[in-house]
Amino acid sequence: FLQNIRVLLQGQAVACSGGVQEITEEKDEQCIFMILYRELYYRHIYARLKPTLEHRFDSYSNYCELFAYLLASDEPVKIELPNKWLWDIIDEFVYQFQNFQQFKSKAGKINEEEKNMLRDEDDAWKVTAVLNILLQMTEKCNINAQLLAIEAGEPITEEIAGEFGMKPIYTMTGFFSLVGLLRLYCLLGDYHMALSCIEHVAFKDKDMMSLVPACQITANYYAGFAYFMIRKYANTIQLYQNILGYVQRTKQFFQNRSFQAEDINKKNDQMLALLAISSYFCPLRLDESVNIQIKEKHSEKVTRLQHGDMTVYDELFFIGCPKFLSPVVSENSSSPFGSSGPRGLQLQVFKTEVEQQRLIPTLRSFLKLYTSIPISKLAKFLDMHENEVRCCLMAFKHKKEIAKGDGGDQTTMDIDFYVDKDMIHISDTKNRPSLR
Q1: Helix/strand/coil (H, E, C) string of 158-200?
Q2: Alpha-carbon distance values, 385 to 232, 330, 358, 362 (Å)
Q3: In which region does residue 308 sit, left (phi positive, over 0), alpha (psi from -120 to 50) or beta (all else)?
Q4: DSSP, res 18
Q5: At residue 279, does pLDDT exceed 70?
Q6: Which of 58, 200, 298, 419 is deepest in the core (most CB within 10 A)?
Q7: Residues 6+ apart with CB under 8 A from 336
Q8: Phi, psi for 372 (deg, rounded to 5)
Q9: Cβ-proximal residues to 372 (8 Å cutoff; 6+ apart), any chain
Q10: Contacting residues for 78 by C-beta, under 8 A, at least 6 apart
Q11: Strand blocks (E) in 366-422
């Protein structure tokens, strides 16, 4: 906090040391200085103290002033901020919205005075307003057009980015707003919309997000979780393997920053839990270092998974999932989601998938023993009717195709099969070394 204040003061001193300036310019500089100062002040309160309702409202008003300063200007503003600071602003903005919604959801702990304040300030921290601000930031700099141009190997020109998009403060804030939208839609349970926000983002080492490690980790976590919830487990595994390897390589860097280390470690544990489930549903080969991390953190739970313990799915899901939000919060203590809240609703969606996947590991283990087998024989092994076995085979095939994700060439199962009348023909899809 103090370090950021010093940077601000130094920047203000440089800005005011250039001789005579226009009064309006000086007022603008003082205005944005105070807005940024207050942003740091409220961030400190959220991090170290317990914010009051008045703090929450004032912080929201300050964010509105900050974004209005960037969005309402007829020409690009003349200030520049470090990428790390721009990410912190967007990340904190979404965090404070999340915190406010969680506060409102605890209606039983809110006194009458606070309820009256919430009614009077009904427009503060509305989900539509927060989404609108982030969307406007992405549109101001044409960030999606810029990302498409980068993907095509084209130079970024004013024709593509616009006047505002040629300024780093707008480009980076717009890009970080895409990650903020990804996070927000995941918290609200709209996973397809979350992924549409980052459809042009390439998760590469030299991508924009790699300029700020905290942004890179956050984006990978929420993108992987969105893929997880729409059953594209191969995409989840690919993203999490890459980012977990990155975290391992840079762990020493984060350990020296205690305020970041705690959040990074939590995200690391969440991704390992989700990866344990994903690799069970979609048996891809994991990196040895990732396998070791999963065994060290969740060895007992992985063993229970392999023995068919259904309760372990709930435990791993609760470890790995974010703190979901409801887009509408009622003043009544009763929640439209029941006693478990939005998280309970998302768990039910996930448990439906678990139930559909329940017999697939057993089915796969039998199929791996044969190159062909009659359906009647497999039905006896499974103690099921032949028609039920056909349904299981169809479900197996269907889940296998969904789990491939966006990479159509990925082999997401160690076997493949087809049914010819009453006979199942199986092929081993593992890559074997050729003998010459």
Answers
A1: HHHHHHHHCCHHHHHHHHHHHHHHHHHHHHHCCHHHHHHHCCC
A2: 30, 48, 17, 16
A3: left
A4: S
A5: yes
A6: 298
A7: 326, 328, 330
A8: -160, 150
A9: 423, 424, 425, 426
A10: none
A11: 372-374, 415-420
- Tell which wins on pLDDT, 133 or 119: 133
- Helices 213-229 and 341-357 pack at an angle, to 10 degrees, of 60
Q: Is the model's pLDDT at 257 over the cut of 70?
A: no
Q: How many angstroms separate the first and last alpha carbons of the chain?
A: 65
- How far are the Cα atoms of 31, 48, 67, 77, 150 from residue 25, in angstroms, in the given order? 10, 35, 18, 11, 35
In the DSSP assignment, the letter for residue 419 is: E
Indicate the DSSP class of residue 274: H
Does the structure show a pLDDT above 80 at 170?
yes
Strand partners, 373: 424
Checking phi first, is residue 373 left (phi over 0); if not, alpha (psi -120 to 50) or beta? Answer: beta
CB distance 22 to 49 below 8 Å: no
User: What six digits make up the tokens of 185?
Assistant: 């839609």
Nearest to 75 by CA among 173, 180, 177, 169: 169
Nearest to 234 by CA among 18, 58, 65, 399: 399
Are the beta carbons of 33 and 8 closer than 8 angstroms?
yes
Band (pLDDT 50/70/90 cuts) for residue 9 is very low
User: Between residues 23 and 210, which one has the greater pLDDT?
Assistant: 210
- DSSP H or E stretch at residue 426: strand 423-428
Q: What is the pTM of this model?
A: 0.85
Neighbour tally for 156: CB within 10 Å: 16
Measure Cα distances from 125 to 87, 96, 356 in Å: 19, 9, 38
Q: Compute CA distances 110 → 7, 87, 283, 326, 331, whole Å.
A: 39, 32, 47, 18, 9
* pLDDT attached to residue 241: 93
pLDDT at 20 over 60: no
Give the tens place of pLDDT for each residue, 142-163: 999 999 999 888 999 999 999 9
Strand-pairing partners, residue 415, are: 428
Is the pLDDT assigned to residue 30 strictly greater than 90?
A: no
What pLDDT is attached to residue 64?
Answer: 96
**Residue among 165, 185, 189, 180 at smallest CA distance from 214:** 180
Q: Kindly report which listed range (36-50, 222-236, 240-254) carries the lowest average pLDDT score.
A: 240-254
Q: Which residues, other chains included, contact 349 with Cβ-Cβ below 8 Å and sequence gap of 6+?
A: 229
